[in-house]
Every structure is written in structure tokens, then in C-alpha cells.
Amino acid sequence: MIDTDLLIADADVVATCAGRGPQAGPAQGHASLSERTSIASCRGRIVWVGAARDAAAALALTPDATVIDGRGLTVTPGFVDPHTHLVFGGDRRDELQRRLAGATYAEIAAGGGGIVKTVAATRAATEDALVEAALPRLASMLAHGTTTAEVKSGYGLDLDTELRQLQAIQRLAHLQPVSLSSTFMGAHEIPPEYRGRAEAYVDHVIDDMIPAVAEARLAEWCDVFCERGVFTPDQSVRILEAGRAHGLMPRIHADELALSGGSAVAAQVEARSADHLIYIDAPHADRLREAGVIATLLPAAAFFLKLGQYAPARMLIDRGVPVALATDLNPGGGFTPSMPFVMSLACFGMHMTMEEALVASTINAAAALSVDDRCGSLEVGKVMDAVLIRGPLTEVLKVGTTPMAGVIKNGLRVC
User: Fold this and answer.
1) pLDDT tens digit sequence for 70-124
2) C-alpha to C-alpha distance for 240 and 132, rounded to whole angstroms
């Protein structure tokens, strides 16, 4: 018999999302739903998944085992959020009022708002202040079912502050349950002191920032905002290749405000993930598929920025590009910590099915962070990260309610 210290017994439905990601094309909708199923773990790892009627004969509960009655529940893998900017200083909620009054993203940035406003506040913040401000954001993400998340720097745009942000992310990983993957994004914007000298700033990122981040082992990934008026495709390639040379794997903000070349860069450098992609077209989607790039879509960003359209998820899926979803939690245009809200937008705004959105938020999102070998699905050998949902899976799509009956992280009930 198999030793078990956590048992979710007789769940109405378990969506295992089984398999190593990413899932693409028709497989994007294979959430692997099974009824009347139990899941067991021991010391944080899943040891058994099977028909509830077979559990008693297969499992030996340890004396201190936790047993959760799964009747009335749907169980999914813990959600993975592969694109956030949750470590920052300051507050830009005033920009929301301006946006609601009709101001565009570009107009707000030109008036001293946007990223540069957060940069000033983040440069002025201590590491302790950054950590303290980020903890409630992570707690809210966890309460909405997120058990693994990516976190970017990029609100420093100078070496000291970028390192401070990354050090804060490292501390946060040990202070709360959500597993964190760290991304260096010194190429988030051209800082005010380098305006008119973009090439000099690119050189600074390549020659000074990337080596320092790599030497301190503070990040796994390197990201760049490839967009008109920010970093060109050629500059983006140089930055991402420099990151790769120092062990930082590439991912990219691409084609958010126009078809600006970001998806072409993603294919060229074989980035793990190309994010946003609101303006991607079919030929560039094919290039992503051929290069093995995951499309990470952020419908909440398009929603809060009032961009007027969403990324073409249906086209990407139909052309065989694996799609992941993320919140883009950030101070200016990512006002939600909730992967369920993102899934709802994906279904009703981007024409994804419920199962496709779930796969995009679990195994494909895990693949976008290259952690699909240990999380993102409910399979023997993987970490026991799970979300308990009251009622059927579609309850996740209800906006303004909290369908979570509980969240399991590393085999422990944390919510």
C-alpha cells in the first residue's frame, strides 16, 4: 500500500490536465476530466490518482494524515501565472481615472505617468518596503488559486534598483507559499536619464546589468519590451542573446500595441514565451509554432488598458501554437491577481473553451516557465498543488464570486 499524508477523497470531478506541456492544437482542450476520483500525496508529492472506489485498497493513511471530503468539489491543478510585475513601489491608481475619462496609454506616459512613474517610486523604495508591499499581492493571488508565478524586475532601470527588485523577489520566495520564478527585465523602458540615447542604455543593459544579475544568480529569465518607441527588434535580439550567453533564458513582450516585430524576435531567438501578442498575424503565429514558442496571452491587460481588442487566441490555437494565460499583475494596467478572472476573459473575450483556458492556466503556463516537469498537472510524481472548487468547473468563470473551497500547496492546505 502507498503511504499517504493528504487525501482528497471522492471528488465529483478531477481535471488532471495530465501530460508534460505544452499542449497545442486540439490537445489544448484536453483537460482530462474524470468523475468520482481521489488524489493522494505524501511529503508534498502526488503518489496516487484513481477511482475513488479503489482508494481504500491502494492507500495507507499516515497517523497525521489530512483527509478532505471531495464530494461537491471539482479539483484542478494549482494555477500558474507566468507573467507578473508584482514587485514595485508607489501607486498609479490615479491613472485609472484618467483612462476611464478617455486618456490613452501613450498620453498618460507622455504626461509623466506609466512605467517611468513607477520607476521613480521603486528607486526610492527600500528592499524591505518592496517585500512588504508585495506580500499582500501574493496572498491575494494564492487565495485565487495561484500556486506558482513568474515575477519580473524592470521598475528600476538602473543597476542598483534592478538588483534590489530581484533580491526582493528572492526573499519573497521564502516568505510565503507561492513558488516564484524570477525574470530580469532591465529592458522594460528607456529610463529618463537615457532619453535620446537608447543605444547607450542597451549597451548598459548588456555590458553591466546582465552580467551582474547573472553573477548574483538572481534571475532565471531575461525579458524585453519590444515595441515601437521602446526597444527595436534588433535591440531586443541583442539583449536576449546577451542574456542567454549569461544563462538567462529569453522571453519577450511582443506585439502588444502594434505588429512591431516582437513575435519575429521570439521566433528568431527561440524564446520560451512571447507575451501579449494582441496584433500578431497568421504568418507570425506560424513562425512561433515552428520555433516552439509558447504564446502567453494577457486579456486582463487589454481589458484594463481599454485597448479595444484581445489577442487572437482562437487563431493561435487553430494554427497549433500552444497558448498560456497570465494576469500581468502590475501597478498601471494589471489590476487583478485572479487567474479565474483571466480565464473568464479568455473564454468570453478570446473565444477559448473552458477546457482550453484551464490547460492554458496550468500545464501550458507551467511549460511557459519550464516547470511543467514538476507542476501544472495532477499526476504521480508531481508536486501536490491543487485548487478545490465548489461545484462544477464552470464556477471558475463567475466574476465577482469566490468559488474556491481551498488551495493546496506542496501537499498542505494553505487557504
Assistant:
1) 999 999 999 999 999 999 999 888 887 888 888 877 787 777 778 889 999 999 9
2) 31
Sign for the pseudo-dihedral over CA of 195, 116, 249, 22: negative
Contacts of 43 (CB under 8 A, 6+ apart): 5, 411
Amino acid (one-letter) located at 361 = S
CA distance 55 to 408: 20
Q: CA torsion angle for 151, 399, 412, 54 (degrees, to 10)?
A: -130
Q: Can you state the angle between helices 233-245 and 262-269, rounded to 10 degrees?
A: 30
Q: Do 173 and 129 form a contact (C-beta atoms < 8 A)?
A: no
Q: Which three cell numbers stand for residue 368?
A: 511557459
Q: Where are the domains of the chain?
A: 2-77+377-413, 79-368
Diameter of the chain by CA atoms? Answer: 71
Q: Express each pLDDT in 260-317 by its tens digit.
A: 999 999 999 999 999 999 999 999 999 999 999 999 999 999 999 989 999 999 999 9
Class of domain 2-77+377-413: mainly beta
Contact predicate 412/10, CB 8 Å: no
Non-local (6+) Cβ contacts of 38 within 8 A are: 7, 8, 9, 10, 11, 48, 49, 50, 51, 52, 55, 70
- Can you read off the three cell numbers belonging to residue 51? 477511482
Statement: residue 241 has pLDDT above 80: yes
DSSP 8-state symbol, 206: I
79-368 has which CATH code? 3.20.20.140
